[in-house]
Write a structure and sequence with these properties.
The chain contains 14 helices and eleven strands. The strands form three sheets. A six-stranded mixed β-sheet has the order 6-7-11-8-9-10, with helices on both faces. A three-stranded parallel β-sheet has the order 3-4-5. The chain is of the alpha/beta class and 377 residues long. The chain is 37% helix and 18% strand. The termini are far apart. Helix 11 crosses helix 14.
């Protein structure tokens, strides 16, 4: 995104900085690149976010502030609000990731312990004009959820934040400073994030330039070129990963047995972002876990292949984007259920050589899942 901005704007760029995940780099001339931690934020992220906040605050009325925002921006722009520290914010992030909270819920919490999220970056940049370009990695492409909406109005409240933490039984587990800030906000002692009617947004424009739907359409076009009958089933699939995997496996069986909802050779495509509730101590990510769970249900089916990968090239805390399996996978390693119970999908597929490893793609529009069913023998 920064490369594209430099190509378009050239010397008109007075300066800038972007925070990116370690290894997700590109050659830039005018915009400084700062590598930092994701999905758990680190000190380099804090330093970069502080610089970004200062750039916005220094902007004058006649300046244009261009914000390039993608999924991952929540972790990559950590600027904790007092009295919360980075370590405490890291603790909250880990708790939310482990309990199965979805991205909307995680970002609601993040906004209310941040100085930059939930429209607060736009607030810092005022009265300058703000042009925000977004790559969406969230269900529904909600502007206030992508990257925790640093330039978008925030409809959520401190009360919503408390409700999410209570829903997952972790309100008492988060650091005392986080509870203190949330309770102060609920009492009106701390200002809420800027809401939709706030005049600060009169000079702010948010535009989604990339999304999961666009990725699915591209996959569909390619599948048709390869001779498949295609069906884009949904771009907003969410829920527990294992249950979503079983649904996809059931569709594959229906294609094999009844030729529905589409006849073979079939390519069924879905997108979105599922969640994993961690119970074991293994290594993996939602895409690898999806494929492992699906592999169990498609075992023995001929001419069926299941694929799932993150469009950014990384899945959970691993170097894999996802994995691929077929009806023969369990025969090659029958211990799939044991690995699944340990949330250890990475090592299962590593043993088979069936991890999908792309390296950083430098984009992020959620996940793409593909079920292929071949025709005949």
């Amino acid at each position: 995104m920064a490369q594209a901005a430099e190509r378009v704007l050239g010397r008109r760029i007075a300066g800038g900085l972007i925070n990116v995940k370690y290894g997700h780099v590109a050659r830039l001339r005018r915009i400084e690149l700062n590598e930092c931690g994701h999905p758990v934020p680190d000190e380099r992220g804090v330093a970069g976010a502080a610089r970004i906040a200062q750039i916005a605050a220094d902007a004058q009325k006649d300046d244009a502030v261009v914000c390039l925002i993608s999924g991952g921006g929540s972790a990559l722009m950590p600027l904790p609000a007092a009295p919360v520290t980075l370590e405490e914010k890291q603790s909250v992030t880990r708790l939310l990731l482990a309990c199965g909270a979805n991205i909307h819920e995680i970002n609601t919490v993040r906004k209310h312990i941040s100085r930059i999220k939930g429209g607060q970056l736009a607030l810092l940049a005022a009265p300058a004009a703000v042009e925000a370009l977004l790559l969406s990695d969230v269900i529904g492409d909600d502007l206030d959820v992508i990257g925790s909406g640093p330039t978008a109005p925030d409809a959520s409240t401190f009360g919503d934040t408390a409700g999410i933490l209570e829903k997952y039984g972790i309100f008492g587990k988060v650091p005392a400073s986080v509870r203190e800030r949330i309770e102060q906000g609920m009492r009106g002692e701390i200002a809420e994030t800027p809401k939709p009617a706030d005049p600060v947004f009169q000079r702010v424009r948010n535009t989604v330039v990339g999304s999961n739907r666009l990725a699915l359409r591209a996959a569909e076009r390619r599948a048709r070129e390869l001779g498949y009958r295609t069906l884009v089933l949904a771009s907003e699939v969410q829920g527990e990963t294992r249950e979503i995997a079983r649904m996809h496996a059931a569709i594959a069986r229906e294609v094999v047995l009844a030729g529905k909802p589409v006849k073979a050779p079939a390519c069924i495509i879905t997108g979105g972002e599922t969640t994993v509730t961690l119970k074991g101590g293994g290594l993996g990510g939602r895409n690898q876990e999806f494929v492992l769970a699906a592999a169990i249900d498609v075992a023995g089916l001929a001419n069926v292949v299941v694929f799932s990968a993150g469009t950014d090239g990384s899945d959970g805390p691993t170097d894999a984007a996802g994995a691929v399996a077929d009806g023969d996978t369990l025969r090659r390693n029958p211990e799939a259920r044991r690995f699944l119970e340990e949330n250890d999908s990475y090592h299962y597929f590593e043993s088979l050589g069936d991890l999908v490893i792309t390296g950083p793609t430098n984009t992020n529009v959620m996940d793409v899942r593909i079920v292929l069913v071949g025709a005949g023998k």
